Amino acid sequence: MIWVWAAVLLGAVWLAHWGAEHLADPLKKLRKQWGFSVAAGGSFVGLAAASPEIGINATSAIRGVGDIGLGALLGSNVLAIPLMIVTMYVATRKRDLGGQAGGHKNHEQHRREQLVQVNRQAVTVQALPYLGIIALFAVLTLPPAWRGLQPIDGWILLLGYAAYLAQALLRGKQGGEDVEWSRKERWLAMASVGALALGAFFTVFSTEKIVAQLGLSRIVGGLFITAPIAALPEVFATWYVARSGQVTSGATSVLGDHVVTMTLAFIPLTIVGMPIENLTLFWTTLSFVALMPALYACFLWWGGEPTGFRLWQVVALPLVYLAFVALIVFWIQPFSSGGNTQDSEGSTRTSLIAGPAAMT
After folding, report:
1. By residue range, what is the domain housing residue 116?
2. Which end of the chain has less neighbouring CB within 10 Å, N or C?
3. Which SS3 state, helix, strand or coil, does residue 251 take?
4. Is Transcription regulation one of the keywords (predicted)?
5. Which pLDDT does position 275 carry in this prediction?
6. pLDDT of residue 151 exceeding 70
7. Number of structural domains, the chain?
């Protein structure tokens, strides 16, 4: 049966690839039509790209294994920024970025300087509000009296996301442009969002089946199968948005995506209630969740002119992620009792220590 799930996996990846490829142009037109800034354009890509995480968390809550969803969301927030910035860097090495008609300004110079130019407005529109969302999540989950996720937390996170979205879309808003939409473009836009969501969900689902049949632990399967495969739809979306010349939108979409994962995607777990079973793993992971956007903001704000990511910064972000993995594997994991516990009825329940497996 492994070959069946392998075929499903490949089909899901292709579906996500198709969705990302057909999403860049509609998003660009929509941003121009509504008069939103290029930094705010990342919110559109982020909302679509985060739909798989919402589906994964809803599924884990329904199945009674909410700790898997908790680990998956926090882990993806650590991985996403370095992965997407590396993708942006590689994608923007192309000549004539955005096509011959309206090539990206000063792109050839930026290629020679090994720079991915990103508007500094991304710090105030995306990075700082994202850090604020992370701080809100920490306040709701870390203090002993409030530890874990409860229904009231879902309402607070929903309000937090609404405030983030409003400031991202309205800041720097100008008069919209007149754009024409064909019927084909409308259908392709809707189909691409659906393809991204379905492709990513079935990518994760089929990978879990393959791991189970091979007898691999969820930690190994999550780190080396689920993580890179589940990230592919977002990688594809970032790649095509960057290649279309929307460099700042591509670089900020990762923040828009994970604002959703830190707010809307957690709501299913708040409905069923989610305790924190491994506090050390939880706060360590949450610290790295905050560290990544903090580095992102620092590199842009104090990186000099023109603003963006230099090659050494592009390399530094994945090294920080590797430090996180090493910390989990060599410090936290050896002191943990194991990845599975038994509930009162004798069924196996994955504890939060399986988070590194699901953190993808």
Report:
1. 2-340+347-358
2. N
3. helix
4. no
5. 83
6. yes
7. 1
The residue whose two tokens read 């969002």 is 193
Phi first, then psi, for residue 207 (nearest 5°) are -65, -40
Nearest to 181 by CA among 26, 2, 24: 26
Q: Nearest 5°: CA angle at 262, between 198 and 277?
A: 105
CB 256 within 8 A of CB 296: no
Residue of 51 and 87 predicted with greater confidence: 87
With contact defined as beta carbons under 8 Å apart, do 162 and 47 qualify? no
> Among candidates 40, 45, 37, which has minimal Cα distance to 237?
45
Rg of the chain in Å (alpha carbons): 20
Question: For 160-176, how does the pLDDT look when each residue is reduced to its tens digit (9 = 90+)?
Answer: 888 877 776 666 556 66
User: Quick check: 317 and 83 in contact, CB under 8 A?
Assistant: no
For the domain that residue 193 is a member of, what is the CATH number? 1.20.1420.30
Measured in degrees and rounded to the nearest 5, phi and psi for residue 309 equal -110, 120
Q: What's residue 85's pLDDT?
A: 92
Give the residue, 86 or 104, on which the prediction is more confident.
Answer: 86
pLDDT at 34: 67
Q: How far apart are CA 192 and CA 352, in angstroms?
A: 33
The H or E element spanning position 341 is: strand 340-342
Could you tell me the two tokens for 123?
Answer: 């710090």
Cis peptide before 151 (omega within 30 of 0): no
Sign of CA dihedral 145, 150, 152, 153: positive
Q: Quick one: pLDDT at residue 343? A: 40
Structure tokens at 352: 């939060």
- Computed from CA positions of residues 20, 26, 32, 35, in that sequence, does the dihedral angle turn out positive or negative? negative
